[in-house]
Amino acid sequence: MNISNACKDLPSKDFLLQVQRDLNVAVAEFTELKQQLERDTLVLSILKKLQEFDTAIKEYNSALLEKKYVAAAQQLEKARSSLKMLESRQGFELKILKALGTELTVQTQNMLYHLGEEWQKLAVWKLPPSKESSSLESVVHSELHLRTVPSKEEEIAGPPVASVLQAFAVLGELHTKLKIFGQLLLKYILKPLILYPSLQPLTEEQSDVFILRFQSEALTLDHSSPMEVFDKIKLIFEVLHKYLLNVPLEQPVEDKKDCRVTLAELLGDMIWEELSDCLIQNCLVNSIPTNSSKLEQYIEVIKSTEEFEKALKNMQFLKGDTTDLLKYARNVNSHFANKKCQDVIVAARNLMTSEIHNTVKITPDSCVALPRLPDPGARDHLKTQKTSKLVHHDVNLENETKLSQYTFSLPTCRISSSVEKLMELAYQTLLEATASTDQCCIQLFYSVRNIFQLFYDVVPTYHKENLQKLPQLAAIHHNNCMYIAHHLLTLGHQFRYRLTNILCDGAATFVDMVPGFRRLGMECFLAQMRVQRGEILERLSSARNFSNMDDEENYCAANKAIRQDISAEDADKLYSLCRTMVEEGPQVFTPLPEDDKNKKYQEEVPVYVQKWMTFKELMIILQANLQEIVDQWADGKGPLAAEFSAAEVKSLIRALFQNTERRAAALAKIK
């Protein structure tokens, strides 16, 4: 066969073009059929979801009528899942979806309403209408009723508690409902049992209901012991666990499908932190001992706390981890130290802010009321042995001239009784530190240092006005500071070898505070001395420098300047003379013959007599007491201040009144 014959057998060009056209038509038909199939498949899937939604709603209604709440809730969730799938279809919107969504919402609310009604039958709160719901009187009238036996209809559907609560869990509303119950439980039952020692829980079990109520018993104690409080709280949880909360919930926790929790555990997670804080702040805090000798007895509180938590864990209210409540109880040594230090500082501040003028006499034989300290121990004994070995027995190194036993004693003086008590508090606190743990010992030691630092800062500020006005108080304050400084010299040494080893190496000292206290007392005393010196110089300013005393006039002036005294009798006579002048003096103003018309001119005496008002104020001073004079002065704004200078008023006060603290206080207000 030649090439020409072979070419004749090949398809023609027109034939190929026809085949190409037929192929394109076939592809187009296939594409259209494929798209149609996809649309039909989508429609079928949507119809299937609509059918599932409809079936779920029907089964939900049927289950709700039979009070099968868990099944009804599960069908609602199936309907919700189908609706979400329909709404997720892009480009395929149906008007019916909005109606389905509305229907689902209505049925969900209907379901929640029925569940709410059932829940209110299971746990019935009977609360007083009083607004003060947390008061003892209101709590006594509060009750919680728990239904114990289901009705005949509910016996068919299963345990009512489990059914209702599991349905809440399926719908995602259990947390909200349980949170409300937990807050009521805390407010009306748990917290009152902690706060009010007289409150006692009472239980009553009837045929179909368990009633929990309260009564108040007369008690003299301000706080219940932790053991008593734990027993009350444990009783409440036992009742709740038996009649309400021992319900397993078929829901995964933290994406672990094989993990199930009980209602008690959920409630515990919601209220335990708040309940634990209340137990710590209003129960355990009050049980912390105030004396180190009672710390051993606190073991009972720790054991009671452990047993309390163990009981709650057995009822599944608590998880297996150690809680803050038990950690607080076990850390009693630290809490004791903190509480003791706080009490010491509070007591010290109360003493510092009390009156200074209540004094006691201190003599060289006086000592702080303190039990005898124990022997220093081996360290002092060793030092004594070493010293004795250095001294030869045949040589007498004792000085024949001995110092008096009072050489280094504080001289006899009067100090504030509050300062004496303050020093006793310091000694007692240090004695307490000697019997405490190392950490507590250190805290108590520095609390004593804080006492004296607080005195240094508080007393001069709190009593500033009185220390400036009253010379006697300034002198007492001086003695107080010297008394404290005297004890600070040896206070650390007395306890040096009885405190923890950390403080024995030179840290237990108060000597560094001595100069500050001496300076504090001296500065106040010297400031008052300067004030007194100024007043004396002011009084003697009219004494004519005590020159030419043989001259009678100079002698009288000097004598008057020194004495500065107007007797009460002289004051009365002066007042009588002044009154005569005030009553009869205006009668010289009689320009008219008719006496009744002259009264107008007699009332205008202050206009023509420049010192007339000064004269009348002087009359008032002659008969007034110190407080009345201060009132007339009125901080430089009263009528007395308008007529006399501060120096003149002070001179009159000094002349008319004896030198007393009241006079000094009045003088201080005239400025």
UniProtKB/TrEMBL annotation:
This is Zw10 kinetochore protein. Its main location: nucleus. Keywords: Cell cycle, Cell division, Centromere, Chromosome, Cytoplasm, Kinetochore, Mitosis. Residues 408-538 form the Centromere/kinetochore protein zw10 C-terminal domain. The keyword rRNA processing does not apply. GO terms for cellular component: cytoplasm; nucleus; RZZ complex. GO terms for biological process: cell division; endoplasmic reticulum to Golgi vesicle-mediated transport; mitotic spindle assembly checkpoint signaling. Pfam families: ZW10_C, ZW10_C2, Zw10_middle, Zw10_N. Residues 18-57 form the Centromere/kinetochore protein zw10 N-terminal domain. PANTHER family: CENTROMERE/KINETOCHORE PROTEIN ZW10 (PTHR12205), CENTROMERE_KINETOCHORE PROTEIN ZW10 HOMOLOG (PTHR12205:SF0). Residues 563-670 form the ZW10 C-terminal helical domain. It comes from Otus sunia. Belongs to the ZW10 family. It is found in: Chromosome, Centromere, Kinetochore; Cytoplasm. Residues 115-352 form the Centromere/kinetochore protein zw10 middle domain. InterPro entries: Zw10/DSL1_C_sf, ZW10_C, ZW10_C_2, Zw10_middle, Zw10_N.
